[in-house]
Predict the structure.
Amino acid sequence: MSIDNESIGAKLQAARRALALTQTDVATQMGMVTSTVSAIEAGKRAVTGAELHTLARMYGRPVAYFLGDGAPAATTGFTYLFRAVADKLVDRKPLVMLEHLAADYDLLEEIVDTPPLPMPVDYSRFGFRTEQDAETLADMERARLGLGDGPILDLVDLLDGTAGVRTFLIPVQDQNWSSVSVRGPHDRPAVAVNSKELVYRRRFDLAHEYGHILAHLYRLDGPPAHIEMEASASRVPADERFADAFAAAFLMPRRAVLGQLDLVLRANNGRFTDFDVVHLAMHFGVSGQAMTNRLVTLRKVSRDTHQDYWKQGGRKFNALAEMLGYDVEDPEDFWKRPVILPTRFRYLAMKAFEDDAISLAKLAELLREDYHDLRQRVQDSVGVAVE
Amino acid sequence: MSVRADRVVLDNTFLSTLQAAQALEWVLGLWPGWWIAPLDVIDEAAAWRSHGARVTALLHRLETAGTVEIAAFDPRIEGALFARLSRTLGQGESAVIAIAYHRGTPPPWMIGEHAAPATT
């Protein structure tokens, strides 16, 4: 079987457009004239192996992406996403990576022959709109996932390993978007959060995207993707307010917050200090601002008090948290990693390797790790030389 | 070792094993003109934190000297096999096999008990 020029050309065009590059941009980088790029994409001129190799690197995709059968394998969600950011200054490489990670996840499930997790429940037909609805939805989801009122210890693994949402942390170089949710292959939702965000901000963003997935992503009239750009001063749309309210209620359930607050106040003879803000926030794994905002929503703190607090003393938050023994910083070099993979993805990859279904080099590719380092680690852990 | 071959396609296991033994340049120099290093293999070698820069610099130097040919697979002829293999193998491994399969006739020793270490 041979691969035709049209098929490769169409995929090259889709990959170029995903990064919002013009044919002239590509031609300049390749040392070609624009008409050559145009001819390659139209299938009128064969791309050489070396050119394909360079283009694949430029587009942040594996060479094999361009060699599959038929039309470009983009899903509706990703196609929409790349169009939605076409005219914006956005770091697109992490979006391309998310698309590949979602495809790799499907591949792993197929190779290991494990049934995919159930899809998240689609609540889009429930007509949830208000912030009170978001509170209701959060309670329903917590009950469905068996979370009770307890804090969520690992939100990434909860969403990825239980709720059926492909979940990744990916560094966004220019920090111009913080999170994204999209309908990926087989309509399975995928989420990426900027790993350069602070840990508690990331958790809130993840819960925010989960709110979008449950209530908006599968709406018939809604877009199949959502990207959270830098906050703007303009009015926040209703869907965003809903997702924020969902995130707050999902991470900090009303009854649990009131219960913890009661304990704190009793221990302090009714006083509520900076340490208490930190303690409550760390208990629920959220930022101090998210915590006091939640107390405002629950009518335990006035909005003015919340705003004054963060104007005056909010900067002490991290120092106080450290004094209380909480880790508020990520491990060193955390954000330098190309991606933070969820446990289930790593498990399936290791399982495939253990079953001899993939090679060590493929394992390194899937885990986005250095082959040579991985080879050494596998040898050390298994105690035998790896061919 | 008695090995006869027209060309041998290099993979990363070969490169890293010999580099770790500090014998890569010596072995490649024993049979100048034999070696084909696919671009995908060089990419993987380049990502090797401790020795990547040294190995890729060596391969480029040996290319200039005519000892090694740095090659890409032909997408239309070798691409389908590459795509199929790369579902379960690394990009470098897939390129090695695709090139070896399409450009050479595997000699008997490739599958025999005297197999050369780097051939696929």
